[in-house]
């Protein structure tokens, strides 16, 4: 453990960002690694209206490497479990998987501080976990059970956590909402930045441009993150967007293109973005180019608008987990045994959570009328007919 | 956007009717316009709570398109009175996002007609998030602005959103009539931890109403969800809100001369709807007429009638309840047609006479109709056009 301390300290202080706080992961096994840190080259960023981009190389400690690998593996495993639960018909309705895109969220989260906030669209399971909700909290929300982070009332698109404002089901609506959260950061002068994520599909929604405009006018600390996974449902970027250079589509808002399959690149870009916004320069657009292995949702096999070969090729050549694994192994930051151990731990944790997410009960029927209002003033909540009136219930603590 | 409100005659009538009928207990009272009452409410709440801020089109340097926010930008500065571009979906979303993060935004729509550009944020983002998050994310936002028919601005700028928004659980929907309503309810809305839609009326902005010392005090807040009996009466219950309250009060004034005493209930709040007050009144008068400016289908009157049907209040009725509403047409521009599209006092008076007549009681100047007679409008006597 003693060998670890310098690198751990470095992880906490190397960032120019105060209060760096990445999710904590047990690193007792990293004593087996042979190198304490290594430096990696990052695929060049593309810049829009920026003189200087993020660092093009980054140093990773063995502890960082293990933490990030653990998070990547966890997100992948959560989605595999979600997919299976859906096929077993235990998850109802919609279910949108994040597999293939993990490096975006994991890298960003590693650079974020406690004061920062996130809002995203409906592909939100992984983000929810990274923002502090347990695996059980995520999976049992998907199964609609009482241990779900929204007590089973939100479902797969409506997950929330501390400084995490969903999980939003209306494509593009989260863009002005995120600008509003950023406005609150600025209003309070708390130094926080709001990361507002949307896909290439939402990139053509009018309200995104409304949000860009006001964010720039008012210098809001908002990072608009376009997760370009190539397809908005079944429509490829080339068929939806007159310009597919999403990083430049903020026009007067500077932008960066980032290799969203490289967790080191997404972390460095996010550090840069936080510094940029905190210096009072206003918003930034970050396009993270990534890929979605699954269909748009579980009902989409994802094969009518793209080829199986295309998916296979990405899996083999650009997979964010495999490529990261190779990098950190080849540079001897971690050992195969350490990664195997993490894989086993992740599998165990997700398996246990999955099991519990299936067996937990749903909330009591009285919660049908739970928390409609924070301060309810309706004497009765109308049920299905006049003879079935309901009471409003306060479930969440009101303080 | 020119201010077309406050025709002198209308103001005069309002003052007359207020003097005659208001049940307000104001002893020492001072006339204050609805506009100034709203301005007071905003000013007092901004002074009271740092997290309250105002945003919308022309709210700051222009002093508000209808001057409701006059002087606030000078007093509170750029941080707390924010001019937005013309971008409703964007700034409504920003207001809701700021509320997610714990601020108390007051989001002004220059008129509620433009809120349709942003209705997704009012309903999907604001109204539903507290429930969807199982109580984790409160949304203390107020959407306010002039609603309903203005004068001479045609179909796209003249409609009532009371029924639209009060349809949605998760929202509270207020519709003030007088200056007291405006001030007390707006302050309540800003302090409320849930999203509130606050429907003002352009025509009423310039109308002065007496405000008591109590209502002028900076701790004056009205309860949300409680109606106000504007005028007591024993023959028929008139239920109304906002501008329609004025119409109903004028009709009540007219009918009083015929020996018909109307009980006029100003709802103040469309959601929650104070049905107890309506039911108690119907138990006394046994007759009900609703008055609103919005369209009839699925409207506020329709909701009240449905609730009466479903409750013991139904058995108190001696005649079918009637709705007086805006005509079921898009608002025309021409003056003569516009006049026909909105309820006026004589329309309400005629409806009251018809409802009372259905019971077989004949009042002076009221046609006697046998029970079960289908009343057609053109079978009613022509009413006098008073203005």
TrEMBL record, chain A:
Residues 71-364 form the Dehydrogenase E1 component domain. Pfam families: E1_dh. It is an enzyme of class 1 (oxidoreductase). The keyword tRNA processing does not apply. Its EC number is 1.2.4.1. The keyword Aminoacyl-tRNA synthetase does not apply. CDD domains: TPP_E1_PDC_ADC_BCADC (cd02000). It comes from the Eukaryota. The pyruvate dehydrogenase complex catalyzes the overall conversion of pyruvate to acetyl-CoA and CO(2). It comes from Papilio xuthus. GO terms for molecular function: pyruvate dehydrogenase (acetyl-transferring) activity. It catalyses: N(6)-[(R)-lipoyl]-L-lysyl-[protein] + pyruvate + H(+) = N(6)-[(R)-S(8)-acetyldihydrolipoyl]-L-lysyl-[protein] + CO2. The gene is LOC106120745. Keywords: Oxidoreductase, Pyruvate, Thiamine pyrophosphate, Transit peptide. This is Pyruvate dehydrogenase E1 component subunit alpha. SUPFAM superfamilies: Thiamin diphosphate-binding fold (THDP-binding). Its cofactor is thiamine diphosphate. InterPro entries: DH_E1, PDH_E1_Alpha_Subunit, Pyrv_DH_E1_asu_subgrp-y, THDP-binding. GO terms for biological process: pyruvate decarboxylation to acetyl-CoA.
UniProtKB/TrEMBL annotation, chain B:
It catalyses: N(6)-[(R)-lipoyl]-L-lysyl-[protein] + pyruvate + H(+) = N(6)-[(R)-S(8)-acetyldihydrolipoyl]-L-lysyl-[protein] + CO2. SUPFAM superfamilies: Thiamin diphosphate-binding fold (THDP-binding) (SSF52518), TK C-terminal domain-like (SSF52922). The keyword Repeat does not apply. Its EC number is 1.2.4.1. One of its GO terms (cellular component) is mitochondrion. Pfam families: Transket_pyr, Transketolase_C. It comes from the Eukaryota. Keywords: Metal-binding, Mitochondrion, Oxidoreductase, Potassium, Pyruvate, Thiamine pyrophosphate, Transit peptide. Signal peptide: none annotated. Coiled coil: none annotated. The keyword Zinc does not apply. One of its GO terms (molecular function) is pyruvate dehydrogenase (acetyl-transferring) activity. It is found in: Mitochondrion. SMART domains: Transket_pyr. It is an enzyme of class 1 (oxidoreductase). InterPro entries: PDHB_mito-type, THDP-binding, Transketo_C/PFOR_II, Transketolase-like_Pyr-bd, Transketolase_C. CDD domains: TPP_PYR_E1-PDHc-beta_like. Its cofactor is thiamine diphosphate. Residues 32-207 form the Transketolase-like pyrimidine-binding domain. GO terms for biological process: pyruvate decarboxylation to acetyl-CoA. The pyruvate dehydrogenase complex catalyzes the overall conversion of pyruvate to acetyl-CoA and CO2. NCBIfam families: PRK09212.1 (NF006667), PRK11892.1 (NF008854). This is Pyruvate dehydrogenase E1 component subunit beta. It comes from Papilio xuthus. The lineage of its organism: Eukaryota, Metazoa, Ecdysozoa, Arthropoda, Hexapoda.
């Amino acid at each position: 453990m003693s060998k670890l301390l310098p690198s751990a300290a470095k992880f906490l202080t190397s960032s120019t960002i105060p209060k760096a706080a990445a999710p904590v992961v047990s690193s007792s096994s990293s004593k087996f690694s042979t190198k304490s840190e290594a430096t990696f080259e990052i695929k060049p960023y593309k810049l829009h209206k920026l003189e200087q981009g993020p660092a093009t190389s980054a140093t990773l400690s063995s502890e960082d490497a293990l933490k990030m690998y653990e998070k990547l593996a966890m997100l992948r495993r959560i989605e595999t479990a979600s997919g299976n639960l859906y096929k077993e018909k235990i998850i109802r309705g919609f279910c949108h998987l994040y597999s293939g895109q993990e490096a975006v969220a994991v890298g960003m989260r590693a650079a974020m501080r406690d004061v920062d906030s996130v809002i995203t669209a409906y592909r939100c399971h992984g983000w929810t976990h990274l923002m502090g909700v347990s695996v059980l909290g995520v999976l049992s929300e998907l199964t609609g059970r009482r241990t779900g982070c929204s007590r089973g009332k939100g479902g797969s698109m409506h997950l929330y956590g501390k400084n995490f404002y969903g999980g939003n089901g209306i494509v593009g609506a989260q863009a002005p909402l995120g600008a509003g959260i950023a406005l609150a950061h600025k209003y309070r002068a708390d130094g926080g930045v709001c990361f507002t994520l949307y896909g290439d599909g939402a990139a053509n929604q009018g309200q995104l441009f409304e949000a860009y405009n006001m964010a720039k006018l008012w210098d809001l600390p908002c990072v608009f993150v376009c997760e370009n996974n190539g397809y908005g449902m079944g429509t490829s970027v080339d068929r939806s967007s007159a310009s597919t250079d999403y990083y430049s589509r903020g026009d007067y808002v500077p932008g960066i293109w980032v290799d969203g399959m490289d967790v080191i690149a997404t972390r460095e870009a996010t550090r840069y973005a936080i510094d940029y916004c905190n210096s009072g320069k206003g918003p930034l657009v970050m396009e993270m180019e990534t890929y979605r292995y699954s269909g748009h949702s579980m009902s989409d096999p994802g094969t009518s608008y793209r080829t199986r070969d295309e998916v296979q090729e990405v899996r083999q050549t650009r997979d964010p987990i495999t490529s990261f694994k190779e990098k950190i192994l080849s540079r001897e930051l971690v050992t195969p045994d350490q990664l195997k151990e993490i894989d086993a731990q992740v599998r165990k944790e997700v398996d246990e959570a999955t099991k519990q997410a299936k067996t937990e009960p749903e909330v009591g029927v009285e919660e049908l009328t739970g928390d409609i209002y924070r301060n309810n003033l309706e004497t009765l909540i109308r049920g299905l007919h006049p003879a079935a009136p309901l009471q409003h219930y306060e479930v969440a603590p009101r303080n | 956007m020119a201010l077309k409100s406050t025709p002198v005659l209308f103001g005069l009538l309002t003052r007359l009717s207020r003097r005659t009928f208001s049940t307000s207990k104001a002893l020492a009272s001072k006339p204050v316009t609805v506009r100034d009452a709203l301005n007071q409410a905003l000013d007092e709440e901004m002074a009271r709570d740092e997290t309250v801020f105002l945003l919308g089109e022309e709210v700051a340097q222009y002093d508000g398109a209808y001057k409701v926010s006059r002087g606030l930008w000078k007093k509170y500065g750029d941080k707390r009175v924010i001019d937005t571009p013309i971008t409703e979906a964007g700034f409504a979303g920003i207001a809701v996002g700021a509320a997610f993060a714990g601020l108390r935004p007051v989001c002004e729509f220059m008129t509620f007609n433009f809120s349709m550009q942003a209705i997704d944020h009012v309903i999907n983002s604001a109204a539903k998030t507290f429930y969807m998050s199982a109580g984790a994310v409160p949304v203390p936002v107020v959407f306010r602005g002039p609603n309903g028919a203005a004068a001479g601005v045609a179909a796209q700028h003249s409609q009532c959103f009371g029924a639209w928004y009060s349809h949605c659980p998760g929202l509270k929907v207020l519709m003030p009539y007088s200056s007291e309503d405006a001030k007390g309810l707006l302050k309540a809305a800003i302090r409320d931890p849930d999203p509130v839609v606050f429907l003002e009326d352009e025509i009423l902005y310039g109308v002065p109403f007496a405000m008591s010392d109590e209502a002028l005090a900076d701790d004056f807040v009205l309860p949300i969800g409680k109606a106000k009996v504007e005028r007591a009466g024993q023959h028929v219950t008139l239920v109304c809100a906002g501008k329609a309250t004025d119409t109903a009060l004028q009709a009540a004034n007219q009918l009083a001369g015929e020996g018909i005493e109307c009980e006029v209930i100003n709802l103040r709040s469309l959601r929650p709807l104070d049905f107890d007050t309506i039911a108690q009144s119907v138990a006394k008068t046994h007759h009900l007429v609703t008055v609103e400016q919005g369209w009839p289908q699925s409207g506020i009157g329709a909701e009240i009638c449905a609730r009466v049907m479903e409750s013991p209040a139904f058995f108190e009725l001696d005649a079918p309840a009637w709705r007086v509403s805006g005509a079921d047409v898009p608002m025309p521009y021409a003056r003569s047609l516009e006049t026909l599209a909105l309820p006026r006092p004589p329309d309400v008076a005629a409806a009251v006479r018809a409802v009372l007549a259905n019971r077989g009681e004949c009042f002076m100047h009221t046609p006697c109709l046998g029970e079960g007679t289908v009343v057609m409008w053109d079978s009613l006597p022509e009413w006098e056009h008073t203005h």
